[in-house]
Amino acid sequence: MPKPVPVPDETDQGFWDAINERRLAIQNCTECNRMQMPPIARCVACGSSDHLEWKEVEGKGRVNGWCVQYDTRVVVLKENQPFNTAIIELAEDSDIKFFSHLPGVAVDEVPVGANVELIFEEVEPGRLVPEWQVVS
């Protein structure tokens, strides 16, 4: 399924740099030891902007929930309708969530609670996006 090409800004550049190196890095506040996603300019817990760093994580999680997209506004995804949109809960911190199409999983057959791992899809030469796949 084609994906939109991300346009990083100064707040999320570190996330996309890691993705393009086939790593997953989550914004972390060293002041209060809290990870947050999506990346923003200040820690949502303590308000610090001086203690934010990128923390590499393993890239494993589980399917928390899902829905089927029958009518998307994202033009590059329209030709693939209907498709799954699953909520992935990061193993290192269940408060961190990602969306995934779960490549290889049929529409309406999303295994809630299943373990997943991070994979990377190329959206243009040298530009990757994170995606998740079910593992046994």
Number of domains: 2
Class per helix and strand makeup: mainly beta
Instruction: Indicate the radius of gyration in whole angstroms.
Output: 15 Å
Low-confidence stretches: none
User: What composes the largest sheet?
Assistant: 5 strands, antiparallel
- The CATH class of the largest domain: Mainly Beta
Describe the structure in your own words.
This protein is mainly beta. It folds into 2 domains: 8-57, no CATH class; 58-136, OB fold (Dihydrolipoamide Acetyltransferase, E2P) (Beta Barrel). The chain is built from 1 helix and 8 strands; from the N terminus they run αββββββββ. Strands 6-5-4-7-8 form a 5-stranded antiparallel sheet, with helices on one face. Strands 2-1-3 form a 3-stranded antiparallel sheet.
Observed structural traits:
136 residues, mainly beta, OB fold (Dihydrolipoamide Acetyltransferase, E2P), 2 domains, five-stranded antiparallel beta sheet, globular
